[in-house]
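note to self: dont lose this again. the chain is below, predicted strucutre after it. 203 aa total, dont forget to put it in the shared folder this time
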Amino acid sequence: ADTIYRTLIVHPQAKAAFKVNNDVQCFKQQKFIFTNQSSIKRGLLTYNWSFGDGSFSADTSYIKTYLKDSAYKIRLIASSEQNCRDTANLIVVLNPSPDAIFSIANNKQCFRGNSFNFTNQSGIAKGRITNYEWQMGDGNTHNTNGVSAYSYTSEDTFKVKLIAQSDKNCYDTLMKPAIVFAQPVAKFIIPNDSQCWQKNFFV
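---
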């Protein structure tokens, strides 16, 4: 009888894993932070990220922003030095943000009789806007679509802010100045307001 011995080597298996700071975010406030949690018992790992929009990375961890709102499938492949691989997947969702837009009919007015009209022109590509908040710059707020005939009680430059909020709790903010000029006060005096007709001389 004859015997043949062979040595079999089983290489350690990579374990791909990662987490994201928040898997549902709003477009205008987005910042996806992907933290690599992959592991292996022995040796080193290399990584291949795919972010669902045609972009890739070989970094250990990654911070990502997208160019459009959508759902994206994230894939991480962890590979050992012996090319033992493992894959982890995750779906992230990027909700559309509203666009806060408004106009002021005349944003520079004199104090006396000042009356400002703020017209809301906000919109959103998908979904709907469910709430507006106007911050008038003088401590007052309104939760209406627009603000009409608003009068300020002092002369100043007021920073008017509109916050638009969507049904997905995404928001956008726009600020514009409303300027109220100081009102001149006309005043004069006559030193001697009672004089004779023939020699009157008013200064």
